[in-house]
């Protein structure tokens, strides 16, 4: 007998001569598995080879000629970079290896060994001879697929690449296994990247029908939430129920596709089944059969494919079922892939929205601060996240008076940025109210309350009108942290907000407090992110520390920018953890020395 | 392997393999342990890291035994390997597979 040698180049080989005995074959297969494990085969491949070798070896034992039972069975495996090949030499009378290998009926106890061997290998050859026979099995090595993780953009990209990779592998494998299907996959490859797979699914399934000799199909998808099955494609003349809710528990009266989705396994039916014919209102004739196959990708239910035939007695054969299931899984991956792409796009849009909101927020802030005679202004803003709700402004009138404005919109992202925009527009619209900050806040509140209440948001704000010439300061606050006023001696006064935040109620009164600007005055408006900055232990920077710092800068007669820089440096030295900090805004007015 | 009866259910646990070597013994011992009232046969495959076609044959033989008694075989928590061979041979449609 001429048997080709193992074809692989640079291969490692192990062969074992085993007594003709089931126990000895089992032990030998364990050793061969260990050997393949040392060659870094993946777990699933080791499982497959162990089973294939056991099945082949068992057959060699069971069917050995009596006269040859003393002769060993040779089991050999050879592993190279791209494939594993096994040779099993037996001393049986030999047999004709069936092509194709059919799966026996479900109630038959024997006959699955050859099916398993054929299913788990890529190539089977059997050489017969008078003295001995040799079964040669070959299987390409599969590339391992990495684990998947959370839902960040990077992970989505990774998953996308992985599913694409799996798709490529499946396409390749299927195209080689089923010539008739390869046309479908070439078709799909040509179309990939154009249009949604849901749209293409119908064309693909129409192509599949004659290949598996089916008469009709229904494709239902579970959608992103997985709460219902919706028909996305079906054959021409059937009219399936458009939507099925997916509510456990399963029971036999449910339509087959719902049961398949709930049970995560194939559900078979014919015209006697309670769920017949899976919600297809007008089947072709009173009889038929078919099955619903759940399409799963990484434990996620993508949808259910139901395929049917008009003749009840002509159930699908195992190989046709294999083709349909493999095709459905392939389709599931394509659809899942498209979903990932959509999710990725959506994540990009969210990121873009935040960028727009951040630009918007930045554009609200004054580009240049006024320069009142004898005084200087300085400001600082820091957003903990991409977009914050802090806002400050300074409005100067022709007479040299100033309105200092600071506000904190409670909320983040686009809604907070939009309210900050509205707030700014309103402030600029009624600058005639600047000299009466209490009235101004009342008006802002009545203008904003309805919209803020709808959005379940509110705004804290403080307005300080500074009449430079008269050296007078008039302050009103809406639930905002106290304004600080320091003089050259280091005495600091806190002016509390006497009114509630904007957006709490419609008719609100905001009392004003009038003060004289002392010599060397330092006026500080800020948001609570400043006093609530935390150090590494989680302790707050605090109101007292801020007061003391301002007292010191006032005593030292620092300018407004120098005072601002000192405060920022002090916050940084405190260990202001920007990753955890809230947004921070500062607005300073200081008399020049 | 150990057999344990609970009401109408006979539970078989502790199978590390179900293969050509032990399949016949598994089938016969199980049949011998069936009571008149046993209607459910639970085969726990949670420890079973290897199943071959002979093991499947024994499960089918027991399924037939149970069917004639108006009962059924259920497979409990199969290992991934056992699950895979059941699916590959389409027997996951024949046996009820229970995962707890």
Question: Any overview of this molecule?
Answer:
The complex is a heterodimer of chains A (593) and B (100). Chain A has helices at residues 22-38, 43-62, 113-119, 153-177, 179-191, 197-212, 256-263, 318-364, 413-429, 437-454, 528-531, 543-555, 560-573; strands spanning 12-18, 73-79, 83-90, 123-127, 133-140, 216-221, 228-234, 243-245, 267-270, 289-297, 300-309, 375-382, 390-396, 402-409, 459-467, 472-478, 483-486, 492-495, 513-516, 522-526, 584-591. Chain A has 593 residues and is of the alpha+beta class. In chain A, the strands form four sheets. Chain A has a six-stranded antiparallel beta sheet with strand order 8-7-6-11-10-9. Chain A has a five-stranded antiparallel beta sheet with strand order 1-2-3-5-4, covered by helices on one side. In chain A, strands 12-21-20-17-18 form a five-stranded antiparallel beta sheet. Chain A is elongated and about 120 Å long. In chain B, helix 3 links the parallel strand 6 (72-76) and strand 7. Chain B has a single domain, classed as STAS domain (Transcription Regulator spoIIAA, 2-Layer Sandwich). In chain B, strands 1-2-4-6-7 form a five-stranded mixed beta sheet. In chain B, strands 3-5 form a two-stranded parallel sheet. In chain B, 36% of the residues lie in helices and 27% in strands. The chains are: A alpha+beta (593), B alpha/beta (100). The A-B interface holds A 22-23, 26, 44, 47, 50-51, 54-55, 58, 62, 103, 106-113, 115-116, 119-120, 265-266, 268, 318, 321 and B 19-21, 50, 52-54, 56-58, 60-61, 63-64, 81, 84-85, 88-94, 97.
